[in-house]
TrEMBL record:
Domain (2Fe-2S ferredoxin-type) ranges: 3-77
SUPFAM superfamilies: 2Fe-2S ferredoxin-like, CO dehydrogenase ISP C-domain like
InterPro entries cross-referenced by the UniProt entry: 2Fe-2S-bd (IPR002888), 2Fe-2S-bd_dom_sf (IPR036884), 2Fe-2S_ferredoxin-like_sf (IPR036010), 2Fe-2S_ferredoxin-type (IPR001041), 2Fe2S_fd_BS (IPR006058), Aldehyde_Oxdr_Iron-Sulfur (IPR052914), Beta-grasp_dom_sf (IPR012675)
Alphabetic keyword roster: 2Fe-2S, Iron, Iron-sulfur, Metal-binding, Oxidoreductase
Cited Pfam families: Fer2, Fer2_2
The protein's name: 2Fe-2S iron-sulfur cluster binding domain-containing protein
GO (cellular component) term, any one: periplasmic space
PANTHER family for this protein: ALDEHYDE OXIDOREDUCTASE IRON-SULFUR-BINDING SUBUNIT PAOA, OXIDOREDUCTASE, IRON-SULPHUR BINDING SUBUNIT-RELATED-RELATED
GO molecular function: 2 iron, 2 sulfur cluster binding; metal ion binding; oxidoreductase activity, acting on the aldehyde or oxo group of donors
């Protein structure tokens, strides 16, 4: 029985070359080019995908390590006809600028909002045991692994706060 990985709800056999990164598997083997190769060193976040509900840099992991895992890429979050709430908010708040980092930003923000709902604290959390909220400071800390060369950070934070129900206030 071949090893498989579930990508956006569809099972795929793992690549035959065990040295293939998850990023290269997504882009080259499956043609899912929404996930971007930025630095290829895990420093920019352009390759962020969601694996079993947690965000990871797909350039830093081998596809072979994800046998049986459930991976969600930007293509699995929404479509042009039916975008996710975060994708809509990024457009409404002009949080995409050139757009290169946007898929990673949206995947990271999606998982980050789930982390906040689950009560996972960050270095910016005021209370480590209480209810977490998506304050601007909290979002900036949690999204610090996703870089935007255009500098759309204020708009990205506004988009995330809007989806989190926190409004546009900083």
């Amino acid at each position: 029985m071949p090893d498989t990985i579930t990508i956006n709800g569809t099972d795929h056999p793992l690549p035959s070359d065990p040295r293939t990164s998850l990023l290269d598997f997504l882009r080259h083997d499956l043609g899912l080019t929404g996930t971007k190769k930025g630095c290829d060193h895990g420093q920019c976040g352009a390759c962020t995908v969601i694996v079993n509900g947690m965000r990871i840099n797909s350039c830093l992991t081998l596809a072979a390590l994800h046998d049986g895992d459930d991976v969600t890429t930007i293509e699995g979050l929404g479509t042009p006809e039916n975008p996710s709430p975060l994708q809509v908010a990024f457009v409404e708040h002009d949080g995409y600028q050139c757009g290169y980092c946007t898929p990673g930003q949206v995947c990271s923000a999606t998982a980050m909002l789930d982390e906040i709902k689950a009560g996972f604290a960050s270095d910016a959390s005021a209370d480590l045991t209480g209810e977490m909220t998506a304050t601007a400071e909290e979002i900036r800390e949690r999204m610090s692994g996703n870089l935007c060369r255009c500098g759309a950070y204020a708009n990205i934070v506004a988009a995330i706060r809007d989806v989190a129900g926190q409004g546009d206030a900083a």
